[in-house]
Amino acid sequence: MAAKKVRLRDQVISLPAYVPGARPRGTMNEKLSSNENPYPPLPRVVAAVSDAAADLNRYPDMLAGELVEAIATMFGLDVDQVVVGNGSVAVLESILAALCERGDEVVYPWRSFEAYPIAVAVAGATGVPVPLLPDGRHDVDAMIAAITPRTKAVLLCSPNNPTGPALTDAEVRRILAALPPDVMVLLDEAYIEFVRKQDEDEPVADGVAILREDPRLVLLRTFSKAYGLAGLRVGFALGRSRLVSGFRATSTPFGVNALAQVAALESLRAHDQLMERVDAIVDERERVVAGLRAQGWDIPEAQGNFVWFPVGDEAGVLARAFAESGVLVRPFAGDGVRVSIGEREANDIVLAVAAEYRDSAI
Ligand code: PMP
């Protein structure tokens, strides 16, 4: 008789691996593969963290009360409308754990953030990926058409990682209008601070404004990008208190560690200074996008801290060309290459490699 073995869930066995941006090796000296903020934490943030280190024998505040209060104040919401977690990925997992039962469907755009299919499967739900439009935007009509009586939630990503476009107010409202009252919409705004598009006819969706009107909308935010705290792992969600209390119930207890809590709080206090850095990154993004387009590249609207090369099957070859110049980027097989915006010198190398690649391809 075959020996019995501990069996993992089938859904877990077939999970795609989350592939993080590798650390630069050998001659690689520019890491532009994980959409990180190129600037180190502000000295006042480092000082707050080192002060807090003296109390590491104690558990942190379980619900991160002071941080939650500061976030609520910033958005003009109640404290019971905010839940924090160990990065926004962990918050996403607790949201899906609170919502999904076996057989429930979660609709999301694809290609988008690679944690979505994994988090949906971990929650025991069925993922329904909906291909993006050729210009890297969400295919709103197709997402609406994908909704079935089993749909529990729709995930939206604005700006979309890895392609770059932001969702418009009209697009988010159209999705909400098409959904039954019991389907939640999670708008992932990980890169929202980098959005600069100003189009009076088609304004970018203001998640916080829509949240006030529609109880089905939940926003996902992070301290990893604009606030530059990726290494400490702090993310949060905003939504109606009835939902948020469910998300808290499924979160890991003490999920945001003590150092992360003080660093995030100090970063909120230094908000203006950090947003000046965001402005500098946005200026660099605009310079890189304009330079690439002038070289003849077809670069979609870039509203995050990264640019997307939609090169399809050439993704691996283009990523190798960057690697040979010491720049680590993120290829997505069959789709394209995502390159984060770094400091000026790194971006200059990106422009030079892209120009050379195009010249050799023509
Ligand atoms: N959402 C999107 C769209 C992202 O690209 C990322 C990070 N790459 C996250 C969420 C996760 O961020 P965090 O570090 O807060 O887990």
From TrEMBL:
GO terms for molecular function: aromatic-amino-acid transaminase activity; histidinol-phosphate transaminase activity; pyridoxal phosphate binding. One of its GO terms (biological process) is L-histidine biosynthetic process. InterPro entries: Aminotrans_II_pyridoxalP_BS, Aminotransferase_I/II_large, ArAT, HisP_aminotrans, HistidinolP_aminotransfase, PyrdxlP-dep_Trfase, PyrdxlP-dep_Trfase_major, PyrdxlP-dep_Trfase_small. The keyword Transferase applies. It catalyses: an aromatic L-alpha-amino acid + 2-oxoglutarate = an aromatic oxo-acid + L-glutamate. Residues 31-349 form the Aminotransferase class I/classII large domain. Its cofactor is pyridoxal 5'-phosphate. SUPFAM superfamilies: PLP-dependent transferases. CDD domains: AAT_like. Its EC number is 2.6.1.57. Keywords: Aminotransferase, Pyridoxal phosphate, Transferase. It comes from the Bacteria. The modification N6-(pyridoxal phosphate)lysine is found at K225. Homodimer. Aminotransferase that catalyzes the conversion of aromatic amino acids and 2-oxoglutarate into corresponding aromatic oxo acids and L-glutamate. Belongs to the class-II pyridoxal-phosphate-dependent aminotransferase family. This is Aromatic amino acid aminotransferase. It comes from Miniimonas arenae. The gene is hisC.
